[in-house]
Amino acid sequence: MQHMQTIRVDHPEAVAKAAAVLRSGGVILYPTDTLYGLGADALSDAAVAKVREIKGRDAQKPIHAIIADVEMANRYGEVNEKAFALMCAYMPGPLTLILKKKAGIDTGIGKGMGTFGVRIPDNQFCVDVARIFGNPFTTTSANAAGAEPERSIEKILTQLGEKADLIDLVIDAGEMPERLPSTVVDVSSGEAKVLREGAINTQLLSVDK
After folding, report:
1. What tens digit of pLDDT does each residue of 47-101 get?
2. Cα dist. 15→70, 100, 207 in Å?
3. CA-based angle 45:138:178, to the nearest 5?
């Protein structure tokens, strides 16, 4: 694993280095407000394919993206009234919103999909990287498909085995506390439909309104 570099999340160059790896089509292993994730340019077919290969993830399963703000979300998906209300209430935070995809977004995670999933984690590193990179990057838990996500870098790399060699940069934030994953809500139709229960109590989302 000679080409993989590890850097602490509080290192002054962590954000710039992560953004540079994303720009070059590489993959980062990084902390969010829930779990460690695998990040790559969300609009690059090759970069997204690399993430799928590392995880052993089915090409049909959607991958979502981290964005910096509502304006960035609006470039790739349709931020309808329901989406905007939930963004204002719960972002940054452990919420993933599935938006109706904008026309012309047909590469990377948008390929063959009618939707575009976005999230703004309550994690300054993630938001800073999205801002400096200037585009969405993938957020999918750093685990082999079907396996439980591990909470430390060492265990994650062990679980991924040889596939870990495809990771270019590791951003180490130590062992993650046990947390629920983000709550996933599909708002692409204008109504809110919970696809995955998670860290946000869905009763608070008033999803039936």
Report:
1. 999 999 999 988 889 999 999 999 999 999 999 999 999 999 999 999 999 999 9
2. 21, 30, 35
3. 150
Considering only the top CATH level, what class is 5-196?
alpha beta
Average pLDDT, the chain: 94
For the chain, what is the radius of gyration of the CA atoms?
16
Which of 163, 165, 171 shows the shortest CA–CA distance to 6? Answer: 171
Percent of the chain residues past pLDDT 70, beyond the cut: 97
> Tell me, what's the pLDDT at 206?
62
CA 19 – CA 189 distance, rounded (Å): 33
Spatial distance between the Cα atoms of 83 and 165, rounded to a whole number of angstroms: 37
